[in-house]
Hints:
Blueprint: H1 3-26, H2 31-44, H3 48-54, E1 66-75, E2 79-82, H4 85-112, H5 114-126, H6 132-146, H7 155-200, H8 202-207, E3 218-234, E4 237-258, E5 266-272, E6 276-281
Antiparallel strand pairs: 1-3, 2-3, 3-4, 4-5, 4-6
Amino acid sequence: MSRSMVKRSLVLIAVILSGGLLAAACGGAGDELLIARSFFQAARFDDRTSLGNMSLVPFTPQDDGIASSPGVEFVGEEDRRPLEMIELNEALAETRDGETTFRADKKMYQDNNEELITLAIESGREGEDPSNADIRQAVQAWTGRTGERVARNNNAGRREHFEGIRDSWNVQVADERDWARRVSEAQNALNDERRIVDVSLYDFVRDSPEPIEVIQYGGELITKQFTVSANVTKDEVEEERTMCFTIERADLHGVMLPSAEEEGEMVEGVVEGRWIITEIDKTSNAPCAGHEAAD
């Protein structure tokens, strides 16, 4: 293919992306076809920048082939649910606060019982109980530093005190791992929720004159499926293939926007993101579930 043909093709992609996907974000007939055409055109030339703006899934010439003449056979109903970024962000902050408090208490306990905890760690690493002499030495060092004494200052009493410290420390070490797991799960839940939001509203956030933090807003996540038929050529063999596309869009509510009626005034409004392809069933060669009856 000549350079001029490639350039014309890339210009076509840009036109489709700026016009077609803008129309798709606003709704209207033919949006799904424009999305499919834009996607397959960008995939044909491995235009990763354009693909990154419209899809979370690949369609490479090497692995999937080159698709042409796409048509939309059926479009499903939109499924809407509230965005939960505010709630998930609050849950993450609360979990982090709990972990911070726990770590501070654990550090205080460790500082107060440093000698006995050190002995517990060392003996645990060696896989054997410390001797009475080792416990006596640790208790004496602990008493000398803190001024505290064990209830019964004999071998049995010192060992009982040591074992209580050791057991409590082991519980706190396990609890620390549990707190780390809970923070990680809370962070992952927030990341999963905002994954589509960040891509769908990328242009708005990038072009906003004021910094926008999307997790501060409520809104909706809209999901829709449509069935696409296309001619796919791979290894010089062309076949007609049916694929199910899943697209998602995030809308933010309560965003301050310039008023359309009063110049210089700002009013709360809704910002509509662009549709993002989040899944393509490329292997079943079948319409989306529930679309068969419409054929």
